[in-house]
Amino acid sequence: MEFTVVLRGYDREQVDTALDQIKHRTLSAAAASRIEFAVAWRGYDREQVQHHLGRLVAEERQEELRRQEGAA
Fold first, then answer.
1. In this predicted model, what pLDDT tens digit does every residue of 25-48 receive, in sequence order?
2. What is the pTM of this model?
3. Cβ distance 39 to 15 under 8 Å?
């Protein structure tokens, strides 16, 4: 999965922490290894970013479940 997130209202440390949580706590290791992040620092407020990331994580979870079901 690859996506670009445009941010306004976060500093770099907050973004790094949020992305780390997504990669290591929310997604499987295999899914996390397929994620590439491109981040710009303007355009969306925090609520929009959180909504966008939440939707992407949910989509990736569904895709991972489909892959697991297909392998079974």
1. 655 555 555 555 555 545 666 777
2. 0.42
3. yes
